[in-house]
């Protein structure tokens, strides 16, 4: 598709692509340059709906309590190779009061269309969600995975998350340099074949 989409057909075009799990925006066939700048809000709305649909289909029990959703993995870091990478969805949610105050909790949720029987393929979806309570604990300890939530470009974020991200510097410390160097070294070993890549590739 070339040029800007017309105002009359932008909705139908994006809806068709966003709800096609094999060729939606998040899987790479509808790029930002395909649409005009004025259509960016519509793109974001469709992308948010698409990611939320994946979250609902995963069986996550509290989709209405999400405060953050974004696309991570190779897509986030600009290393996505069209037709080869899966879709990595990350997010945060606030647990219901009875879980926060009770004896049980629901600190995180992990799900993949690949299940546990095979490695991820280019059309698989991985979902990793943390409760705000769990994420805060990891962030305060300098966990690299948790801290990158603060700098990721979100598809959906609530006023609660915007307030947290607006004060992101309170989570940063020089003592976190060592964990980050370890994380970077681990990723380098995976890329050079010195360490197994695991099921998720």
Give a concise summary.
The chain is an alpha+beta fold. Helix content is 35%, strand content 13%.
Features:
201 residues, alpha+beta, Beta Polymerase, domain 2, 2 domains, five-stranded mixed sheet, 8 helices, 35% helix, globular, disordered N terminus
What does it look like?
This protein has 201 residues and is of the alpha+beta class. It folds into 2 domains: 57 residues, no CATH class; 140 residues, Beta Polymerase, domain 2, CATH 3.30.460.10. Helix content is 35%, strand content 13%. A 5-stranded mixed sheet has the order 3-4-2-1-5. Helix 1 packs parallel to helix 2. The N terminus is likely disordered.
Output the CATH topology of the largest domain. Answer: Beta Polymerase, domain 2
Bin the strand percentage: 5-15%
- Give the tally of β-strands: 5
* Rounded radius of gyration (Å): 18 Å
SSE order and pairing:
Layout: H1 10-18, H2 40-57, E1 66-71, H3 73-76, E2 87-93, H4 97-101, E3 108-112, E4 125-131, H5 132-140, H6 144-147, E5 156-157, H7 159-165, H8 177-191
Parallel strand pairs: 2-4
Antiparallel strand pairs: 1-2, 1-5, 3-4
Helix pairs in contact: 1-2
């Amino acid at each position: 598709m070339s040029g800007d989409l017309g105002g009359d057909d932008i909705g139908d075009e994006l809806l068709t692509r966003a709800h096609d799990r094999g060729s939606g925006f998040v899987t790479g066939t509808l790029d930002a340059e395909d649409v005009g700048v004025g259509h960016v809000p519509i793109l974001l709305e469709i992308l948010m709906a698409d990611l939320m649909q994946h979250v609902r289909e995963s069986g996550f029990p509290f989709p209405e309590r999400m405060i953050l959703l974004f696309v991570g993995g190779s897509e986030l870091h600009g290393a996505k190779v069209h037709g080869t990478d899966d879709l990595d969805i990350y997010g945060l949610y606030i647990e219901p009061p009875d879980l926060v105050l009770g004896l049980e909790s629901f600190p995180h949720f992990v799900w993949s269309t690949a299940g546990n029987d095979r490695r991820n393929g280019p059309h698989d979806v991985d979902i990793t969600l943390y409760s705000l309570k769990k994420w805060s604990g990891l962030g305060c300890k300098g966990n690299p995975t948790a801290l990158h939530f603060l700098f990721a470009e979100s598809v959906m974020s609530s006023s609660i998350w915007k307030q947290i991200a607006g004060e992101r510097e309170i989570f940063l410390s020089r003592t976190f340099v060592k964990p980050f160097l370890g994380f970077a070294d681990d990723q380098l070993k995976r890329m050079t074949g010195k360490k197994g890549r695991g099921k998720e590739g």
